[in-house]
C-alpha cells in the first residue's frame, strides 16, 4: 500500500506507540490522585504538555488537552462566543468560507442561536484577502476564527497579518492549526493568536486526543461540565496514553520539521510536474506556492474523483477526493466551490498528501499509474469530449 492520504490521518509512529504502552497497563493511574501511581500519570501528562507547548512557542500553562481537533475548535469558538456575548461585547464572528466542518458547523450552529457570522471569500487561490477582513470588522465583532492550512487544498492563510489586525481591534483570534502543526513552522506569538487547535493524529500521534492553546488571560465559557480537569474546559479523567503519544509526536515533529518540509515538498513538486506534463487538462486546485509542503489537490476535467480513488486503490495507492459526497447527496466540496469551481469541475478532484515515510519510488509509481487511469475513465465518460472542448476556461482556478 502506498499511503498518500496524510491529511485524513497519519500512521502512528512506532516510537510514539512504545512510549504510550506502559500507560495502558502498569502505569494506569488516574492523574488526579495523589499516591505514586497517580503522580506518575500526572508527571507524564505534564511532560507531554511541555512538548506540545514547545512546538508552538507557548507556555505549558497555556495548553489544555482535549479529544482532538473537533473538541478544541468547539471549546475555543463556543467558549469565546458565549463568554463575550454574556459580557455584552457583541455577537459577530468572522471566519472563512473554507473552514473544516469542526469550525464551519460550529459557526452555523451559533448563527442559529443569534450570532452573526461573516464568511470571508478565498478567491481562486484559496486564500482570504486582508482588505476583506478589515472591511468585515465592526463594533460587535468578538472573534475571528480562520484556519492556518486547509485540509483539502493545503493553502496557507496569512495568519500573522490576521492576528495583528485582530490585536489592534481587540478582537479574539482563533486558528485551527490541525493541518499545520508539525508540517510548517507555528509560533503563537509570531502569529498573534489567542487560541489555536491541534490534533494528534495528523502529526503521527494517536487518534482521539488533541490540544487547545489558550493565551494567558483569555477567558472562555465552558461548554462541558464535570470534574474540573483541564482548567474546567475539558473535564473528565485524562486520556494519559493518548496525551503521552501526542506529546512525543510533537517532540519528534519539532525536531524533524526542516527535514519533513524539504523532503515532502521535493516529492510533491516532482508529482505535480510530472502529472501536469503528462495528463492533458489537469490542474492544481488552489495556490501552488502558499500551500502545505506535502499537499497537492489535482483536478482532471471530465471524470469523477471517486472513480480515480477506486482505481488507484486497485493499484494499491490510497488517495482521496475533495468532492466526496459526504452524505447520501452528491454535493461538491464547499472548499472547491469557494475557489470558484463549478460542480462538474470539482467532481474530478484528487487530493494526494505525502508523508515522510513515502519514497521517491512511491511517487514514481503514481506518476506511472495515474495517466492510464485518467485516460480509461475519460474514455468511459459521457461528458469528456476533448475535440469539442466543452470545458470552461479553467484558468479561473490556479493552473500551472
Ligand atoms: N480541523 C481540520 C483542519 C482538520 O483537517 C480536521 C480533521 O480532519 C479537524 C479539524 C478535526 O480533527 P479531529 O479529527 O482530531 O477531530
Descriptive overview:
This protein is of the alpha/beta class and 400 residues long. The chain folds into two domains: 14-255, Aspartate Aminotransferase, domain 2, CATH 3.40.640; 257-380, Aspartate Aminotransferase, domain 1 (Alpha-Beta Complex). It contains twelve helices and twelve strands. The protein has helices at residues 14-20, 36-56, 69-86, 101-112, 130-136, 159-168, 240-255, 257-278, 305-314, 334-338, 343-346, 360-380; strands at 2-3, 63-66, 92-96, 116-120, 141-145, 172-176, 195-199, 210-214, 282-284, 295-300, 317-318, 349-353. The strands form three sheets. It has a seven-stranded mixed beta sheet, sandwiched between helices. A three-stranded antiparallel beta sheet has the order 9-10-12. α6 links the parallel β5 and β6. α3 packs parallel to α4 (101-112) and α9 packs across α12. Residues 324-328 and 388-400 have low confidence and may be disordered. Residues 68-70, 73, 100, 102, 147, 151, 176, 178-179, 199, 210 line the site of pyridoxal-5'-phosphate.
Summarize this structure as a short list of keywords or feature phrases:
400 residues, Aspartate Aminotransferase, domain 1, alpha/beta, Aspartate Aminotransferase, domain 2, binds pyridoxal-5'-phosphate, 12 helices, three-stranded antiparallel beta sheet, 12 strands, seven-stranded mixed beta sheet
Question: Secondary structure elements and their pairing?
Answer:
Elements: E1 2-3, H1 14-20, H2 36-56, E2 63-66, H3 69-86, E3 92-96, H4 101-112, E4 116-120, H5 130-136, E5 141-145, H6 159-168, E6 172-176, E7 195-199, E8 210-214, H7 240-255, H8 257-278, E9 282-284, E10 295-300, H9 305-314, E11 317-318, H10 334-338, H11 343-346, E12 349-353, H12 360-380
Parallel strand pairs: 1-11, 3-4, 3-5, 5-6, 6-7
Antiparallel strand pairs: 2-8, 7-8, 9-10, 10-12
Helix pairs in contact: 1-7, 2-7, 3-4, 8-12, 9-12
Bound molecules: pyridoxal-5'-phosphate.
Amino acid at each position: 500500500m502506498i499511503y498518500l492520504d496524510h491529511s485524513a490521518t497519519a500512521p502512528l509512529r512506532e516510537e510514539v506507540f512504545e512510549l504510550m504502552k506502559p500507560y495502558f497497563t502498569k502505569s494506569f493511574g488516574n492523574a488526579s490522585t495523589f499516591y505514586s501511581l497517580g503522580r506518575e500519570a500526572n508527571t507524564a501528562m505534564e511532560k507531554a504538555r511541555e512538548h506540545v507547548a514547545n512546538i508552538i512557542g507557548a507556555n505549558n500553562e497555556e495548553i489544555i488537552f482535549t479529544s482532538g481537533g473537533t473538541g478544541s475548535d468547539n471549546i475555543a469558538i463556543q467558549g469565546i462566543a458565549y463568554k463575550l456575548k454574556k459580557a455584552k461585547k457583541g455577537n459577530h464572528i468572522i471566519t472563512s468560507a473554507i473552514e473544516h466542518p469542526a469550525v464551519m458547523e460550529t459557526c452555523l450552529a451559533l448563527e442559529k442561536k443569534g450570532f452573526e457570522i461573516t464568511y470571508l471569500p478565498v478567491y481562486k487561490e484559496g486564500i482570504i484577502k486582508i482588505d476583506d477582513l478589515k472591511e468585515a470588522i465592526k463594533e460587535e465583532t468578538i472573534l475571528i476564527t480562520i484556519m492556518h492550512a486547509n485540509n483539502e487544498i493545503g493553502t496557507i492563510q496569512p495568519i500573522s497579518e490576521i492576528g495583528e489586525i485582530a490585536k489592534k481591534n481587540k478582537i479574539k483570534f482563533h486558528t485551527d492549526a490541525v493541518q499545520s502543526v508539525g508540517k510548517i513552522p507555528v509560533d503563537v506569538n509570531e502569529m498573534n493568536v489567542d487560541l489555536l487547535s491541534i490534533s494528534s493524529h495528523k502529526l503521527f500521534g494517536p487518534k482521539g486526543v488533541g490540544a487547545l492553546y489558550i493565551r494567558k488571560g483569555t477567558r472562555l465559557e465552558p461548554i462541558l461540565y464535570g470534574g474540573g480537569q483541564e482548567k474546567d474546559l475539558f473535564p473528565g479523567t485524562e486520556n494519559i496514553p493518548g496525551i503521552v503519544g501526542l506529546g512525543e509526536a510533537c517532540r519528534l515533529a519539532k525536531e524533524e520539521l526542516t527535514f519533513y518540509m524539504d523532503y515532502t515538498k521535493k516529492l510533491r513538486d516532482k508529482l505535480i510536474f510530472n502529472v501536469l506534463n503528462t495528463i492533458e487538462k489537469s490542474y492544481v486546485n488552489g495556490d501552488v506556492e502558499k500551500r502545505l509542503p506535502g499537499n497537492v489537490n489535482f483536478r482532471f476535467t471530465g471524470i469523477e474523483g471517486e472513480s480515480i480513488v477506486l482505481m488507484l486503490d486497485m493499484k494499491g495507492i490510497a488517495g482521496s477526493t475533495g468532492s466526496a459526497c459526504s452524505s447520501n447527496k452528491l454535493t461538491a466540496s464547499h472548499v472547491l466551490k469557494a475557489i470558484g469551481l463549478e460542480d462538474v469541475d470539482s467532481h474530478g478532484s484528487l487530493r494526494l498528501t505525502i508523508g515522510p515515510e513515502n519514497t521517491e519510488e512511491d511517487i514514481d509509481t503514481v506518476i506511472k499509474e495515474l495517466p492510464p487511469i485518467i485516460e480509461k475513465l475519460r474514455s468511459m465518460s459521457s461528458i469528456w469530449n476533448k475535440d469539442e472542448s466543452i470545458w470552461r476556461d479553467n484558468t479561473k482556478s490556479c493552473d500551472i
